[in-house]
Each structure stands twice: as C-alpha cells, then as structure tokens.
Predict the 3D structure of the following.
Amino acid sequence: MHTGTTLTQFIIEEQRHIAGATGEFTGLLNDVVVAIKTISNAVNKGALIGVMGALDSENIQGETQKKLDVITNEMMIRNNEWAGHLAGMASEEMDEVYPIPTKYPLGKYLMVFDPLDGSSNVDINISVGTIFSILRAQVPNRAASEADFLQPGVKQVCAGYALYGSSTMLVLTTGHGVNGFTLDRDIGEFILSHPDMKIPADTKEFAINASNQRFWEAPVQRYVAECLEGSTGPRGRDFNMRWVASMVAEVHRILTRGGIFMYPRDTKDPGKAGKLRLLYEANPMSFIVEQAGGVSSTGYERIMDMTPESLHQRVPVILGSKNEVEVVLGYHKS
Ligand code: AHG
Ligand code: MN
Ligand code: MN
C-alpha cells in the first residue's frame, strides 16, 4: 500500500488555496498526466512495439522526425483535446496552431509542448522527456490563433517536464516552488518524491555542446576556457563537464545537484538566434529553474521577459545555479 501524496491529491490541495479555482486546471493537469503515462509506456517498450527509428518527414525546423516524435505528439493531442479545458495547442512537431476539433468544447487555457525532447537519444536508450507550458487563453472559449500564444514566459500558469529515465518523473511548477513526482508503475500513480526542489547556488559542473566552440561569442569562449583551466586558472577550482543532448535530463541534473547549462547564441547559422525554442523549451524550463532559485537568461536578458514573435522562435539559453550563471552574465556585460 502506498502512503505518499499522489500528484492529483497534491494539485487539488494546492488549488484549494486559490480563490475562485474551479477545478478546471486540475482536470487539465490530469489529462496531461495521462498523456505522459502513455508516452512513458511507449518509450519504455521501445523496439518491442516498433516505435524506434526515423521517418522520411521533417518538422518545420527542418529536423528529421523520429517515429516517436510523431507518436508522442499524437498522444499529447488525443489526451488533451476532448475535455474542454483548452482553446488551442501548439507543438514543436506541428507547423501551425492545433485547433481543438469543433465537436469538442473550448476552454480557458492554451498548452504548448515539446512532446519528445532529446529525441536523437531515443534509439540509443538514453533519457528523453516531454516539456509543457500552460498559458491562459487571451479570450476564453474562443479558438486560439498564433497571436494568442505569443505571451512572455512570466505569464505561464504552469510549466512541467516528464523525464523518461531510469525512473519516470514529472517535475512541475505553478509558481509556488517546484515539486518532483516519481511514477509508481505498480499503482499507475505519480507520487511526490522530491518536494520543494532547490538548485544549489554554486556549482563546479557545466554543460555545453563543445563541438560548436568555434561559433560561440566571446563571453562564452571566456567562461568555458576559464572552467577548463581549473584550479590553476582564474576560477581557482576544477570543473566537471556533462552533455546528455536532452535538455530535460540536463535541467533535471541541475535541479538535483546544481550546474550550468548553455545552448548559447552562436554564428553557426546566422538566421537562428540559438537552437532551443522559446515557447516550448526555454520558457517552461526557465519558469521551473527560477522557481527553484536558479537563473535563466539569453546572456543579455531574462528569457521569461521576452515577448515571443513567432511560435517556433529560437533563443539562446544559459540557465542553472545562480552564482555561476551570474558569472557568465557578467562576462556578457563587460
Ligand atoms: P529535440 O529533441 O526536442 O529537438 O531537442 C533537442 C535539444 C535539447 O534537448 C538538447 O539540449 C539539444 O537539442 C541538443 O543539441 P545538440 O544535438 O546540438 O547537442
Ligand atoms: Mn526539445
Ligand atoms: Mn522534441
């Protein structure tokens, strides 16, 4: 018999403190949780159910789609379109806003998501995840257009990610701290396992894809060079380095033991400000990181203050342990 707090119980108890809460948000989150359990099952069964490998198609960003990119996108849509909580959805894997089919009622929330983050890792059995962000519809119960989604990250009502790792976890914020839940497969419930997660302010661990080094700007070049100099350099201590190539896994590591993660602005493709996408990667992760006491910036400005210009806009990301991110931001100023 389990004795822990289930995610549903946790959300209902949290909603009780909010005047005027109707239970609609709790309903929406329950649907997201069902989608995540479904995705977790598919990722876990992998080759047994024929979901590995790539398709011939590309998404709007020109990336080859994995079978699971498309399957997990479908799972998010099917589980969240019917209940009447949403006025629209948008995803990494869909060029345009997904309109709620007219046979279903419309609701007062919008959801944006990356159904499978780190999908280059899926065929090699390394952790992947799902990222989601919930916004208020500008006009409730009216079909949302792209413009309705272009809200700065500070307007998010909720952000979360699922990590399909050695265990499946769901990490969530509604603006009152960050809580982590672990899926107990025997009872099919997420149980509160990591209450009030906090990012240590200091760290000796950095994460960056060093194969892009020649394209980085001067402040990031300086920061990484100084980390590599270790205890004999200006930082006066040895650093460790990690790169999983799944942002969800990197952010989860940082939430657990601290660290700094960078996918900075670079000159690799002058048409792109960075690699990660503002609405469904950078904003939700920034909300979680800030709620856990960390910092998240482009190097030049707070990510959550940016007004998005388009659904699939890219943005440089530097996030993690407060004191370490501030060192990098200081280099951007000078
Ligand atoms: P996605 O699989 O949703 O396209 O996202 C992958 C992202 C992010 O999770 C990760 O940090 C980064 O891309 C990895 O990029 P590199 O392949 O350049 O290392
Ligand atoms: Mn992603
Ligand atoms: Mn993805």
Observations:
- The chain has a mean pLDDT of 96.
- The first strand starts at residue 54 and ends at 58.
